[in-house]
Every structure is written in structure tokens, then in C-alpha cells.
Sequence to fold (149 residues):
Amino acid sequence: MPKLKYPAVCRTHRAPTCQDVENLSKVRDAGGHAVSFYFKPGEEKLAERDAMIVNLRARDIISNSYGQEKPNLSLLRDLDAVMKIAEDADGPESPLKIVFACRERGIWEEFEIPTSNRIVRLEAANSFDLSLLRRLAQLNEPGRNSRPA
Fold:
């Protein structure tokens, strides 16, 4: 997988493919710095609440990393970048934003997909959480009926 410029300079405005899922599934980070972020805010007051959920989840991830050792600056920068994306979302009109980031491995993959479903997920682990991306990629494969999530 090619190393990308960091971070949001390399926004991808396309649907994910099965090849994207395969490439991302190969990424491993023993330090637990592989950040998976899915964000599509809800209506009105839910949009504010959803941004706060991302902020609180980022704090949980940081707190957990303090328990292991000094927090990794690369992880902190990735979390800061995805929190900025959540803050900048245009509410329910926004597309689903999906980010997979691991600064330690030089990875920043970002997708935008139109959907009406509210989704808020932020994780940091040894590998990316690809469960939702895998389903979306299968919907977008040639020969399948494409429809939003």
C-alpha cells in the first residue's frame, strides 16, 4: 500500500472497493495505533451529541494508552484529525466519512459515501475495524446493485 501524505490532504471522494478492504486488512500495528473512524451525524441535536461521542471516545482511547505507556504522538495526531472531521461535518446532510489512519505505518485512507443512516464509530486497535467497510465495498462491486448504506 503506498504511503500517503498526511493527514486530510489526501481525501478520497469515492466508494470503497473490495481491493481497498484487502489492502487495509493487511495492516497490523502492535502498539494498537490503527484508528478506524466512521461518522455520519444524526439530525439536529443528535449531530452535536454525535460529535461529543467522538470526543469522549477519543479521550477513552487516550486514557487507555496512558495505562500502557506514554501516549503515542502519532496516535494523538490521528485522533485529533478525525475529531476535526467530526467537528466540520455539516450535520445530517453530510456523507458518511470513513477514515483508516495509522501514522506509524504512513496510512491515511478516507472515503465519503452518501447515506441517510446515522453512524458513529471510533476505534484504535492492532488492526482496522473493516466490518462496515467490507459490506459497503461488496455493495459497490461491479455486477451488484449499488445503493447507499
